[in-house]
Structures
1.
Amino acid sequence: MKIAFSASGDTLDAQLDARFGRAAKFLIVDSDTNEYGVVDNTQNLNAAQGAGIQSAQHVVSAGAGALVSGHTGPKAFKVLSAAGVEIYLSSAATVRDALEAWKKGELQKIDNADVEGHWI
Amino acid sequence: MKIAVASGKGGTGKTTVSVSLALSVSDPLVLLDCDVEEPNSSIFLGDTTGRQTETVTVPVPVLDESKCTACGECGRFCEFNAIVCVGTSVMVFPELCHSCGGCIRVCPHGALHEEESPVGELSFCTISAGTGSNRALILVEGVLTIGKAMSPPVIRAVKRKGAALAGTLSSENARDVLTIMDSPPGTSCPMTTTVSDADVVILVTEPTPFGLHDLDLAVQTVRKMKLPFGVVINRSDSGDDRVREYCKKESIPLLLEIPEDRRIAEGYSSGIPLVQAAPEYREQFARLARDAAYLAGVVNDGRKHA
Amino acid sequence: MKEIVVISGKGGTGKTSLTAALASAAVKKYRVVFADCDVDASDLHLLFNPDVKETHDFYSSHVARIDQKKCISYGTGTVCKDLCRFEAISYSDAAGMVIDETSCEGCGVCVRFCPAHGIEFPDRYCGQWFVSDTRFGPLVHAALDIGAENSGKLVTTVRTAAKHMAQNGPDGSGPEADYLIVDGSPGTGCPVIASITGCDAVVVVTEPTLSGLHDLERVASLARHFSVPVHVCVNKFDINAEQTRSIIEWCSRNSIPVLGTIPWDRSVTAAQIQGLSIQEYAQKHGAASVADAVNTIWENLCQLTQ
């Protein structure tokens, strides 16, 4: 399965970005092979509003079946759920740590947005 | 004629000036409270509990799933991420929608239409005001619902209602009725939406560094919008002279100065209008209205408003 | 690191003066980073006297511009004007079809449907934001361009930069700050929402007037809507003891802690004129009661946010 991680950098050792909507990058990792691709999210930072929605669309178009991030707001949550993407929260420091935690089933899957929207 | 009362800085006395003008002018008039995030003018106008109300709505897109092919055109077009195509479904986020109508037009299958979504409320009533005359004052107040973010649609609704009700005051020409618009603070969209069709703007300030800094921003804004304007300094003896010097240097008409006055401050805190706490000011506000009208006429030379 | 945002609901209650006072008190013991999120009328820099280290241009959304060389309308056949929901497009014989950039909301409808493909859609320049050194600590602040839209995006940009600095130090490797103190905006719309979501505590500065209480109720409701803890302080409390009591009772009924009350004092304006915090002014000139009041507010806030 492909899993998306919000990240501040380009490799598995990059910091896991606690924010989803304004994350700089998404790493789309194949959970069987650990191979991954990088989706750049920086042009999303130009959006005046609804950044979480745009980020959610990137994750969906990349074919991810699950997302791991620090927090997910209500609009992003709606979009991801509509596409059937499972959402997990992690406070791990790096993408690699979060990936290992996911594989071990240690991460909390959420049924609702865990933070209020930022509006922006 | 339309007078807008604005400022850069909050709390300088816009509502005080708007209400004072409304209570000092002898002609029938319409007072619009366009500070829809925090409307306060009704506090100073006595019993306004019998107001009529109307919901303010904005059009937002609604999907007809039977016609939708999930082509994604709507989502690609929307600049505000208010409509998104995800997988086989289209989601609308009405709180982000600017009601531009674009997605409805770009949909190749006619799968979108607009429906009204509530964002705030208008309330209005007629108050008998003025000294013994049957002069009517119509108040229109707009309120943005808590949690909704965009004021301009509610402000526009207040102005449309004001124009409609002005028609009931004058048998000849609604444009002859005086309309006073109490504007929100600041210089961004809520303020510019309010003052955009004013014949003249009164900028209220205070003689402090914050007052001066924000007055300069407001002056640049009304100049950019090519609106005639003048300045009123409230609590005029409470700070320093820099605002007066600024007005002189910029050739800005200084229309009125109101010194700090305990009667006025105490009255304000209890909802008593300035011209009731300090009746000698009625004359000055009547003159302010005439001066504002003069400013509107002098610079306008033939420019027409709808 | 705790993030505290100072807001007011009503403008002019003393939010910015209190932010500087909290700064003065906080930095005696703590490492603090500051943000001025009142980007529409930002005044905090007048007290902080910043030494600007970084300047960033700020772009948000787009603005539509008609290329007159491509325009085929001569006042008739005005597709763009007919489609525009924001009354931003007008025609004159002198200038042709013109888009008013202040009214343009950047929706892109005219751009898409112009039959001559003659409308450009560049990124909209909205202003600048800055990272500065100040005597209290690093300050992130901004200046929104005249008439620019204030969607909250610039607020978010400032806040995000300040938060990053507070968490990671000015060069990314430094120690975490203890507090991030944010000067917010008046009102309840987009910029305020963008200032407060996700923070640790909101401090509402109010005044003992009917308007002050009315606006406090609205802004407290907004903070609740976004699940943010609210605290209140009453400024100029002695101008109306009865109203102060009403506010304190209201807070009590709604389980909102009152951090303190500040007496009305000319020294607050005098401090502003000299570009000093209340405590800095009091050190030079006396007025200890006001300085004590704001220090107490800080102490109480500190305890509640440990």
2.
Amino acid sequence: MDRLLNVTTGLSVLLLILVLGSLRRAHIRVEYSVSWLLAGLALLVLSRNQSFLQTIARTMGVVDAPVALLMIAGAVFLLMFFRFSVIISHLRDDNIALAQRVAILEYRIQSLQSGDGN
Amino acid sequence: MTAPATTDALLVIVPAFNEAGAIAEVVGSVHKHVPGVPVLVIDDGSVDETAAKARCAGAEVLPLPHHLGLGGCVQAGYKLAFELGFEYVIRVDGDGQHDARDILRVLDKLKTSGCEMVIGSRFLNSSGIQTGVARWLGICLFRLVLRPILGKPVRDPTSGFVGVNRRALQVFSRSFPLEYPEIETLVVLQRRKFRFEEVPCQMRPRLAGRSSITAFKSLYYITHVLLGVFVNILKYEGRVRRATESAAKQGD
């Protein structure tokens, strides 16, 4: 159990370093980093606080505390992926609308310049 | 292309992606059979000479900044047509499968029936090529699914040979299915109590290139379209329910 919790601790620290490093280099926007930082911190706290983790595991009806931790981590990441899918869908819609608008405006500017005048 | 001078002006739009091998003939054929009608080729980020060849053939070209997919491409044409004030828009595929002689039949049906959309159907006429077995099965499935939703049979729900009037144009300018639009647009129209009709048309083999819907993509296509159909129904029913609740609250 300790070894597995050490692994999740390492992973959460790695995740935090990765996100903070990306933030520093402006590879990720602050608003999109918050979810990852919270997930990393939650994973770290649960990995290091065994009594808290066991309480949660008992509440969930899971005998093995690390299994509960992995379940929580999996659920959190699934929710985050869903959230990002929603964001990507919005961005895609916006991108299409913008591309259409740019194309139409360019077309109309060229028509004006060539004297069609629409 | 200028804003139309008449109130019942027609625009033919041709969504095209890498159709350099066929586009000139498509445009030429439209000009030959429907003289005087402007042709707008919407170039969906082609990497070949589609735009140049369309211009040489006498078409107006609306080049998109990058590839948007069929729905985004067609909607760009609808938006421009609506802004310029066209009353009717007929979409013809850029691969040469549609016979330009059928454009007038679609236009005539749009004008005489008063319905919002007219589909050129290859299955109302026994002549002309039909389709492959896999696509035929898909079409049969879509017919079965759409029959109770639309309240009337549709023979060729996947046809890209479609004419719309200004009322439909207004709706499609705001909201249009973006990936595989043909079937979902029927549901969008039906939810707004708009009507559609079908007229027989000829389908020919592609003049050049290959269909974007390969055998491998067919399953994804069917799943995507079916999901899109049901999402459109749910979206509309949700809007109607919210509008009814809002009206009831205001009444109180």
3.
Amino acid sequence: MALATRDVVGILTDNLRLRGSVLPIPAKRATRWARDLDLPRGGETVLYTGMMYQLIPYIERLVGLEERLGDSPLARFTGLARRANKVFNGAGLVARPGAGERAEYDRVPANVARLLRQAGVEFGYLYEDDLYSGALAHDFGADEVVAAHARRVAALFRKHGVREVITIDPHTTTMLRSVYPTLVDGYDVRVRSYLEVLAECGLPLQTPLSGAVVVHDSCVYARYERVVSEPRELLAAAGLTVGEPVSSGRQTWCCGGPAEALFPAKAAAVAADRVEQLLAVSPDCVTMCPICLVNLRKAANGTMRFRDISEYLVDASVPVGGD
Amino acid sequence: MNPALADELRLIGRFDAEACMNCGVCSATCPLGIEMLPRRLFRYAVLGMEARVRAESETVFSCLLCRACEENCPAGVGITENVRVLRHWLLEDGR
């Protein structure tokens, strides 16, 4: 049974309005990935994570709780939970993943920073001013809350003198590139995914990989932002043979993840269909979105392997132990 | 019935469901396989059948916004934006 849609959406959008993220986590947790990288603060070009990868372990904890609550008598008290959440960060209190759960997702932004550095790209990082983009609240139609949040992010870009943003995940990419210009007057920040940046400047190849993988396109990259050829070019440059599932590129099949916050069972069914399509090509799948990664991995239940594309690219391009 | 429903939706954002030709490509390509979404739902909205739209709230919020339907829609309907507008409208009185 699903929890009351209005209350779950309300809690997430209240969080964005009151605390700057649908699932507020401490800034030191969101920025921990950068602590050994000595990235300059701000600058004309910044790597912008939108906290997406860092948030995934917390979201998973929350979804697990939601699944358990959905079948219990407590499901009737979501309205009360929403009222309480306005006073204190309830979601932040119940979603507390361990260090092991956080490590893999924290590694992705660090991978991207190393890859860009290796490719000779100069960039900074906004640290605690690298905010969530508002993607989930936008999907829910919470337009006023998202517009206010977009203005807040745009003001931070102005404060730090940011002219160009390099993004890591598809959801932050489409928010900053395609949605913010419709919400913020005078917004003229250039936004590119690191996959587009690396495809343009060339993968700094050090150790060619071998083997075959199947690629899972993110719906948002492929259909919203037309990022289709870049990941394939980069994987091929890394030395991998890239296999295509029955639905790929702009006809890709959703991982089900967008339904997870409200209807976990429906999300799992869509993911199971996709796992079947992917496994028919290869047991090793490349993803490029944190939501796809976690949702497909959960549905596969160990029958195949999923890795973020940045892991492969780092293996092929960054010397062991170095940047 | 609410004959002004489509106008109300257009005040929220871009709502072009009336361009739908009811061909069924969207239903055929939907990973969720929900027959209701989006063409029948859009027809209810265009015809002002407010109670029926409200009754399909779960369907509206189930949509993955994956754009598989929109990518293949021969009429070029902005399906995902229409769904987002419907979500906004459904949540509006509860904010």
4.
Amino acid sequence: MVISLSSGLLRSLFWFLDFIKPRQVLNLASQIPIMSLEVNRLTKNYGSQKALDEVSFVAQKGEVLGFLGPNGAGKSTTMKIATGFILPDQGDVVVNGLSVLQKPKEVSRLVGYLPEHNPLYPDMYIREFLTFIGGLYGMKRSSLKSRIEELIPLCGLEVEAHKKINQLSKGYRQRVGLAKALIHDPEVIILDEPTTGLDPNQLVEIRKLIKNISTDKTLILSTHIMQEVEAICDKVVIINKGKIVASDLLKNLKTEKGKSVLVLETEEVLELEWFSKLGEISFSSSDKSIQLKVSDAAAARKELLQILQERNLTLVSIQQKEKNLESIFHQITQS
Amino acid sequence: MRALYWKEVNGFFSNLSGYLILGVFLVSLGLIVWVFPDTSVLEYGFAELEPLFVYTPYVFTFLVPAITMKMIAEERKSGTWEILMTSPLSVSKIIFAKYTAALTLIVVALLPTLVYYYSIVQLGDPVGNIDHAGFFGSWIGLVLIGAVFASIGILGSALTSHQIVAFIWGVFISFLLYFGLTALVQIQEMSPIALFLEEMSLSYHYQSMSRGVIDAQNIAYFLSVIVLMLGLTGILIRRK
């Protein structure tokens, strides 16, 4: 009796398990994350100072997200929270569906991180250091070795590869830090000011490298060099005094809500009403040049030329003005 | 975890200061056991190594914190701590790797003293006339003292990001636990809790090991002090 009862119980248990199994799978399937890194309403206080205030943004796979802000705006704090080094007071960071608060160690396997001051062990040789880091991430010896030999040329370290870290210049140390961040082939790469201390040639190389690795990864980098953002970032998040003040695609930010600005200059004095059907118009630098805000730059250019011809005006130039990221930055962060 | 363990052990030997610490340790022990007339075994006339076991804990109070002082403090100061904390290693694994590395270094420092044992075995009349159990009991006792001091040193290193301060903390707590408690017992007013204090002190358990009897009670005492210190270290690190 006891046996049949317990076997019956077991059978019903199995039946129950079978019953819930497909639903679990379904749940998992619906949880497969599309985005790679999601920062959710992070808040962090240092004493009475509010370092972060409800910071949220999303970085997607395949895009480079530039994280901008003046010094002390909270860039590094956000990155330190995202890598699990410090804990937020509120909010969470979710990497590929995993919360950094609940599963910090699983998340750390997915994330490659170059900290702000690029800490390294000065007494170690480059290969020794990278082997150590690979060991921390539990990489196997053979795959680790080939990975290091792959990364050394990739990060431009061939010439210096036999040296100790304390014999390297700042730019080369930065490359070692970059190799460190990439060693376990992470899904998400977080670089805190990766190009400080590099010379102009190295800058170009490192930017190229960053652009290359970003194709199938999620990459976040903080910087305050605007040219760099223009060169490599797809998306820009600007933070000021702990708050997100702008978060958009780079091209949207530069063209002001998708509109482009054309500047027309002629030999003759112009009148605004001639161009009134084209869009928002104002005089630019003199009464011989006007500025137009239009949604379709190409069509507007055509029409402009037509008007010029009709009125028999002499063209000096038509320029499409892109907003300077630097001025956007000033504007947003100083208000 | 193995990677971090080897990093610590190799780091100690790839540095001149590591050899210096070991050198000073062995030279001072050598002087105490064989040269200084007051403590020399040769002057003593009996085939035993009591001076080694009496004075090594004194040397240990300085040697062990010197080994452990930089393990956490320096990583904090140079920022490399961030590398470890953002790696898949948990805090307890980091502490454990560093602790076992310190323990390895202490055993390495103690290994040459086995030569003393061999010397005394040869010098005895007749040859081999030595209390073997007493020696090995004491020697294992020394390793355990070193193990306790290492956990204290790690705690000291976690208390601060300055190596020197970490060293001083390590020396102070080790000193207090080994000599301080026993010394306190001699104060008249302490008599109600004298036995308790005595039993809490490291030296009490060490001495009972040197009789050549390895007692579960003593082992349990050493282990619980180690676990307590490393646990405190873990709490300290997580809070910061």
